[in-house]
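Sample pair:
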Amino acid sequence: MTTNKKKLLIADSMGKAGWDLLAARDDIEANSFPHLITPADFVLRIRAEGGIDGVVIGPMRFGEAELAEAPRLQVVARIGVGYDSVDVPALTKRGIPLMVVGIANSPSVAEQAIFFMMTLARRGAYFDALVKEGRWPERLKAKPVDLLGKTALIVGFGRIGTRTARRCLAMEMRVLVYDPYVAAESVRAVGCEPVGDLDAAVAEADFVTLHCPKTPETLAMFDAARLRRMKPTAYLVNTARGGIIEETALHAALSEGRLAGAGLDVFAVEPTPTSNPLLKLPNVVTAPHMAGVTVEAVARMALAAVRNILSVFDGQPIRENVINQEVLD
């Protein structure tokens, strides 16, 4: 029997495929914790373990308080790709890699973005209500629009943005891309048009879909001033992170007819309260931060998260999934 097992603490939201992969290792002791745990209780849970070597987390916070209870921690793995709730500098200072799941949920998020675009353009919620409420004669009062020939603006051309762009191209849309960190030739290579001026691009777009991380640079990127530049017939989709759009400004634009509609999977505060004025608007479709959470994506993310952890324990970290790569050098 293997001694000196590595001890893992894993959010109970991780899919079964990850647990099955761990079961094949006799050098790992893995215990779960509730993924909805409070920050204070999470610190206590880590302390109760008496030392952990790795942790697999969902969207909860992880920083100095948690690190103080885990002096032998070797790796933090996210079940997902966002990491705005993780204190990356604190991990880097201790030489601990933060790892994300790469492309595991990228196709699922891209599909959700397209779903929002199609639902808004084809007035899915409105027509569904007409049929169910016996209001069939009203169907011609608000006609849907095509995606064909429309201009889509992709903000952020990473793992998800690139896949969303391909799907827009398949719908025979013109695709603009804004990402100051991606070379223009890389954008053109896949049939899209690079743009350097975001304000000019939003004024041209029929659909704007956000796929950038939440950083100080992107926080409130879509504020009142930028929303005023959008067409009154345009739609805004956010499957990235809450806070990139100023919700008060978005509500004003939508309720005053300066924007046609919005699809929101993420909010500034989550769960967003039912009193959020955006939820009262008929031209808003929403989801509870589920864009990357499909049956298939959950399995892919679980496998990726566990493989990330094991790669560190086995001395061969999967470099492309490490956010703070300087800890590897």
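The chain has two domains: 6-104+295-328, 106-286.
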